[in-house]
Design a protein that fits this description.
771 residues, alpha/beta, Rossmann fold, 4 domains, 24 helices, 36% helix, 15% strand, elongated, binds adenosine-5'-triphosphate, binds magnesium ion
């Protein structure tokens, strides 16, 4: 029965340094390596239901269990090897390979200090290239072997061998063979694979070419020759001839019938001969601490010591070494360039495609974990936007008309045409282009309500530090005043009469009234406003902004200097907005987030240069302010429009390419926190990308790294790769050595089990590859 082992994360053992050893011992026991036939089971001994065959090829690991093996054995070994086992067809080992197997050279000794440690996550013992097949065939230790191995170890160590790892329960015996088209490579690889067992054999291993079934032929040929010679020269009787000839014929027949892949199935041989000894050398006569044995030079000195206890091509294998060999190398990422194999957990994943694995199979996310958030990191030009476009395309193709989707773009000039191609339903809000609609920041209602809403939005988007309570009230009154008086027909005349240029847009009005052009202009504009729309409301707003006027003297209660100070903070914000004239151009169509969500729109908001030439852009501060207002507005609308969407199976998908462009101040971090903590109930699925993690606020970064799917493209600088590596739980060198268009992914499967880090090759979505 064949199984494929694919990488899974290692169980968290905490401080328990022996847990891996126990897992390995359990696997060995289940493989029958720690048991022995008894008188009752002796009749079944010929069945050979012990041991296993491990096959390593490239990044893949296969396991073959004998019929009748413990069905749990595959899982137990997989657990010990940080993998999951899945039944599969036998691996397709090509015919015509040269097979070599390792053996212990004569005179090799063993070092007593060889102990097993858990391999690090990115260690791998076997690492054959794609065209090479490493086969480790394991069986349990025979009766003779176990007796002899103790004596052998005892003599090697010149002490009782109980502390040796080769003297524990569950030590099996294995034969290590390697098949390769090139004989030389096969030999080298066989020696390396045997060394990977880390037995402590010094100086190491040698290798033979495997010639299955040739041995008997080689034995029979001299016998036939001898029989002939005896018959011809020594007058032996004629009946000595047929026996060896028959033997030879049978040996040749056996050779002919031997399957080509016999090396794979060759169990480790036994040594049935007499116990092997070798002559004791000076080193064998040393004590454990220092100096010579008392008897080292006396007549009683040890002259012979036990030699290697096994057939020389059979190597003892402790459980931990077996588990280490079984470890799929896909969990090793030390060479970033290596693509990994898709984990079993994602086999049936039905979400967006991230890329292709080492075998060219699609690696998809599980669609039900998307509300756990997706974050993409990577240096400029790494391919974030390309991957983001793939995710967006998948989302739009899998959206019902009850789902909504909003994409925040900062590089619309290059992205929007691509997105339009990938998503025919896409609507575009090009923030700096007045010919496209703009998202309404004010909402419906009376001027007072709209001013109030805008001021709250401003405060929420920028955070309490940037917009304090007093500033919020100023902004509210300034905007409400603008919205009240600007539509008045007399307003422009009043302005002209006061020697002012009438402001065109409400942010410009608010800016002037907040003393953006000086206190006298602010007072003059307020006066014009009162004249244009006389009434207690307007009067009250002006008084709240500029202070009351003493009716007797006509002097303002608040001095000019004092007023400038009071208005400075809110004025700065309105000043930024007033400087993006296109954004609030008079007569520009507006649409509210509420309508966008209600109509199930697929909307891209471009905060960068306009798609239409000339590519007008906003300043950096303006862009991040407008972006923050839009994102915050969306978040509030989602809260009121999308209640119960998750239960209804509806999706509110938000994509933010280049977070740093949209983020501003503390308020926006709250948006991500809200998405993470409450978004699920509202069906919110957040995907965001950013170039350099170290540019983000640390608390925001840790929030992002709590997302269930975290991906990164290559990061070259030490700071970025360290941070990304930590966040993804991989070595920073992996992040810094990723190849072009390779994405390192950390995600969970559909049952929310954490998966090991994967490296996939991203498709070129921008060029139309399907998502
Ligand atoms: N898998 C791919 N195969 C071929 N070309 C690709 C692939 N992925 C991305 N590209 C191309 O590489 C270029 C850079 O990619 P992209 O714009 O996605 O990078 P980015 O990480 O978003 O960069 P920035 O941080 O500057 O926005 C683009 O021209 C894109 O088309
Ligand atoms: Mg980009």
């Amino acid at each position: 029965m064949w199984f494929e082992l694919s990488p899974a994360p290692r169980p968290d053992d905490g401080d328990d340094r022996d847990a891996y050893r126990r897992r390995a011992a359990n696997a060995a026991a289940r493989l029958g390596l720690a048991s022995r036939p008894s008188i009752d089971t002796l009749t079944q001994a010929w069945r050979r239901d012990d041991g296993c065959i491990l096959v390593a090829n490239g990044a893949r690991r296969y396991l073959c269990l004998p019929d009748g093996a413990d069905p749990e054995a595959a899982d137990a070994l997989a657990r010990a090897a940080d993998a999951t086992a899945r039944e599969c067809d036998p691996p397709d080992i090509p015919a015509g390979l040269v097979w070599a197997h390792a053996f212990v050279p004569r005179g090799a000794t063993i070092s007593r200090t060889a102990f097993d440690e858990p391999d690090k996550d990115d260690d791998v013992r076997l690492d054959p290239p794609a065209g090479q097949w490493v086969v480790v065939n394991v069986r349990r230790m025979g009766w003779l072997e176990s007796r002899r191995s103790k004596n052998w170890l005892g003599d090697e160590f010149n002490m009782t061998p109980d502390t040796s790892k080769l003297q524990k329960a569950g030590v099996g015996v294995c034969r290590v063979s390697v098949g390769d088209r090139d004989g030389g490579r096969a030999h080298r690889a066989a020696e390396m694979a045997a060394n990977a067992l880390d037995l402590g054999v010094t100086p190491g291993f040698a290798s033979h070419t495997s010639r299955p079934a040739w041995g008997l032929v080689a034995l029979m040929l001299p016998l036939v020759a001898a029989a002939f010679a005896g018959f011809m020269l020594l007058n032996w009787p004629a009946w000595v001839l047929p026996v060896p000839i028959l033997g030879l014929i049978m040996a040749v027949a056996r050779l002919a019938l031997t399957p080509r892949d016999a090396a794979v199935w060759q169990r480790p041989r036994h040594w049935w001969g007499l116990t092997r000894y070798r002559e004791a050398q000076s080193a064998d006569l040393k004590t454990r601490n220092s100096g010579d044995d008392l008897e080292a030079f006396g007549p009683q000195r040890k002259r012979r010591v036990h030699a290697y206890a096994f057939q020389r091509s059979s190597l003892p294998v402790p459980p931990t070494a077996l588990a280490a060999l079984a470890r799929p190398s896909a969990s090793r990422l030390s060479q970033g360039a290596a693509l990994t194999v898709r984990p079993v957990g994602l086999e049936t994943a039905d979400g967006p495609r991230l890329g292709r694995d080492a075998d060219g199979r699609d690696v998809r996310l599980a669609s039900n974990v998307l509300y756990g958030g997706v974050v993409l990191l990577g240096r400029p030009g790494g391919g974030k936007s390309n991957s983001m476009h793939g995710l967006e395309r998948w989302a739009s193709e899998h959206a019902s008309n009850r789902d909504a989707m909003v994409v925040f773009e900062s590089k619309g000039v290059s992205s929007i045409p691509v997105l339009k191609r990938l998503m025919p339903r896409l609507l575009v809000v090009d923030v700096a282009d007045p010919s496209t609609p703009m998202i309404d920041l004010l909402g419906p209602g009376t001027p007072g309500e709209r001013g109030e809403r805008f001021a709250s939005l401003m405060r929420a988007a920028l955070g309490d530090e940037q917009v304090g309570p007093a500033s919020r009230l100023m902004i509210r009154d300034a905007v409400a005043l603008a919205l009240t008086v600007m539509p008045e027909p007399r307003f422009r005349d009043r302005c002209r009469a006061a020697g002012l240029v009438a402001p065109d847009t409400w942010p410009q009005f608010a800016r002037v009234v907040l003393a953006g052009d000086g206190v006298s202009a602010a007072r003059a504009l307020a006066h014009a406003a009162v004249l244009a729309a006389p009434g207690p409301d307007v009067q009250a707003m002006v008084e709240r902004l500029h202070g009351a006027v003493n009716p007797k003297t006509g002097r303002p209660a608040v001095s000019d200097g004092e007023l400038v100070k009071r208005l400075a903070a809110p004025m700065n914000k309105m000043d930024l907005l007033a400087r993006c004239p296109g954004v609030f151009a008079p007569g520009r169509r507006t649409v509210g987030w509420r309508q966008v969500i209600a109509h199930g729109a697929t909307l891209a908001v471009n905060l960068g240069g306009t798609v239409r030439a000339p590519h007008t852009t906003l300043g950096d501060d303006q862009r991040s302010l407008v972006g923050a207002l839009l994102l915050r507005g969306l978040r509030e609308q989602m809260e009121s429009s999308c209640a119960g969407w998750y239960d209804a199976g509806r999706h509110m998908r938000v994509f933010v390419d280049e977070m740093t462009e949209v983020l501003s101040g503390g308020g926006n971090a709250e948006v991500f926190r809200w998405c993470r903590t409450q978004g699920r109930a509202f069906g919110v699925e957040m995907t965001c990308g950013t170039q350099f993690p170290e540019n983000l606020d640390p608390s925001l970064f840790s929030l992002l790294m709590d997302f269930d799917t975290r991906c990164t493209f290559v990061m070259r600088s030490v700071a970025s790769s360290t941070q990304a590596g930590q966040a993804l739980g991989v070595d920073p060198s992996v992040v810094s050595s990723l190849g072009e268009h390779m994405l390192l992914v950390r995600t969970v499967d559909a049952d929310w089990n954490t998966l090991p880090p994967m490296v996939v090759r991203t498709p070129w979505f921008d060029n139309g590859e399907p998502a």
